[in-house]
């Protein structure tokens, strides 16, 4: 169901699945509070362990339900004791009859690919619309790295960040970048999907690639980002010694998935997987730290300063000087704008 | 006199007496700054010890007078030295003549029932409109407990909180509640006064009643709240061993009086009195801590979260699901709305 | 060049020189971020050491350039590596051609009288409009005291503060004031310049004058403030033993120069010079501390409280009760208002 908020004028696609959490964030006896599309949500598990999402607001006096308790999948308001199940239905009114007004808006959720997906649109919630991220499930657990990083920037700025990886040369010069600006780059758009590729032959690999091509060897590096609306990005990387054939074993695939919290705040989910060193716990931990640190100390401060500098103005209204490197990001933005307009016309 | 503020559109009754302070809060040589109905006020005593209230703003350059000094009941602005008495009249202009423009708006105040009462309306300030709280004066000082607790919530949310004491079972389960939800409840309205009663026969008393009915005895408990506009609430409680006659000695009466600071902030004054253990300093101190802790750690966080969840929207505009327990609070709100409308039509 | 901001409706003169910094604040290899007239600016030195001022915002994706690096006077954006010189011209685009869109707005600056002056208007930036402050250059370095004190108050409140020094008797009673209220005061206006004078014959000098007239001697004190638009104030002070002739050697001259940061925030620059004890490092340090402490602990808190009390309302719209002591400040405000209106009509 849809609940109107002051930000409905915001540029959000509503008829789509957003990632609300990683499944491991949901305990069996606690709440996860998360604001998505400016709506305060309560995520929890029912008695059977199934994930649920309801509005974090009691319909009686609007106390946040997260200030109450949960037991056996039943949420009880901490103010006057009304209790609700995972569908938002009132299951106990200690003060009288359970009327139809006594319900909390709930939202369809699906557990898939280690994540919790939520539908906040008016249209039918068809799980087949959830992006296919089976590469995560296919990867041994020991080679997965999960991240959840809230960021005070509009979700489209986070999309732009991944769609233009040339930034790695300037923002991450000591870890991830160095060869992106000089890479052979191509952008293509097909069926609402935007793909950007970077090919760096015979380059000096940055530290993040040492495990595939240790120094002092030179490397051939291939990188690909595939964007799908609203902000689901798959980043594939691979490297071999310069001049040798590509090897599937040397590849890594990372999900970057961004869910709008509000107009200038986002939930940034990532999951890194790889085909090498899949059982190496120490390497997994080292790589997790490298990725998290790069984002927390380099991307996040830059994105948040960029947001502060832009205020709440739309990017294009500020007339940015567009460069070649913006090709992918601009295409993605245009597709998304068109989808949002179509949704507005239909709705 | 009235001074217009940006919040005059707020839902406030103006032609009524508001409690501005407890008398013990006013020293003989200091200021008390307090914002009421969004106006910054300066409360102090004149040379004779009489309480005074003037706007906390010099008419010359609008410096807050509280940044200056007070001596012998004369307030001197700390910026350019203009001095004012308790009526707001300028009594010294070091720089020239005292003109009629050199005055600070002042407000009628009355000291009564251990409190300072202020009139901020345009109508005549008739002290007979001050609520009769002589039960406070009649109670020995050793059995009084005063409280002043500023709260970041609209004053009507604090009224609702007292008008519906069923919340004690959920918010204060280990101290005050347990038998409210199952109590026989009645609500009546008469001459603009709303009374709610809860009768709990043969119940297990909560710790706050142990001094009247110690465990393991069961108790008969009677509780009554009387509301008068704008937000003056008298809470009477009593308990005897189950099945025995009511005893006046076993009664306590508490004032809960809420004065709007701004639209989402309030001054919450309370005064607890009782007819038992009136000379027991240790009991007085223990009970004071229990009441203060219950509010600070349970009511106040819930009220402030509720306010944050509601934003500045009017309660009814959010279409709350009303329950039986809301009967008293809703009647009080309707009476108050009518009084505010009548005042607006008259003024 | 001019860049429009949300505050262009603010009461600012644009076609004039504002002090942006003291020259010693600009290092040879760093940035100085400073917001002036609500525009975020980046101040730095080019390869030749010349001061430069450009907008602190990359034209590509609006990242603040201060989040990047500077080397040899070239500023490089830390996000995607675009590089700009002191004129705002792009000198390196690692990703393609340098187009005309790739430039950052720059602002004329002039180094003069130990300060950096910036022109943010649409008109011609004629350096002859910079106020003549050669008294600073003429004073031995050992007798100069520089100050930079950001203040959360509108720049005109800081002007008012200096134009009405009677405040020293109330705000600085133990250091600077005592004889101002009783001084013979005169105000004159000529060619857009406002001069206020205070003459205190045979007075008890405050501690700030002890070096000229030590206690228990009585003093003749002369003080003069000359205001020029927008907020350049020269404060001259002098003192001799009561009844003896004026002596030039006993004079001090202080610049008070206020540059608007935003509507309720200012950059306050001061520079104190004197003709006595010019080589006394200990005295210089003591006097610097006295002036800085007086502002930080007395003026600044009062100005910021005054601003908070006024909100963003214009002073005259609040109908202040004007006193004799306001004569100079009111004339200065009227001249400034007329200049801003003339500029608006012309532009």
Task: Please supply descriptive tags for the structure shown above.
alpha+beta, 17 strands, 5 helices, disordered N terminus, Naphthalene 1,2-dioxygenase Alpha Subunit, Chain A, domain 1, Rieske Iron-sulfur Protein, 4-stranded antiparallel β-sheet, globular, 347 residues, homotrimer, 7-stranded antiparallel β-sheet
Account of the 3D structure:
3 copies of one chain form a homotrimer. Chain A has 347 residues and is of the alpha+beta class. The first copy, chain A, has 2 domains: 17-129, 3-layer Sandwich (Rieske Iron-sulfur Protein), CATH 2.102.10.10; 134-346, Alpha-Beta Complex (Naphthalene 1,2-dioxygenase Alpha Subunit, Chain A, domain 1). Chain A has 5 helices and 17 strands. Chain A has helices at 134-138, 155-163, 168-171, 281-310, 327-346; strands spanning 17-22, 32-36, 39-45, 51-55, 69-71, 74-76, 83-84, 90-92, 109-112, 115-119, 145-151, 184-190, 193-203, 219-228, 232-241, 251-262, 265-274. In chain A, the strands form 4 sheets. A 7-stranded antiparallel β-sheet of chain A has the order 11-17-16-15-14-13-12. Chain A has a 4-stranded antiparallel β-sheet with strand order 5-6-7-8, with no helix packed on it. In chain A, a hairpin with a 5-residue loop joins strand 7 and strand 8 (90-92). The longest helix of chain A is centred in the last third of the chain and has 30 residues, at 281-310. Chain A is globular and about 75 Å long. The relative contact order of chain A is 0.14. Chains in contact: A-B, A-C, B-C. Chains A and C meet through helix 3 and helix 4 of A and loops of C.
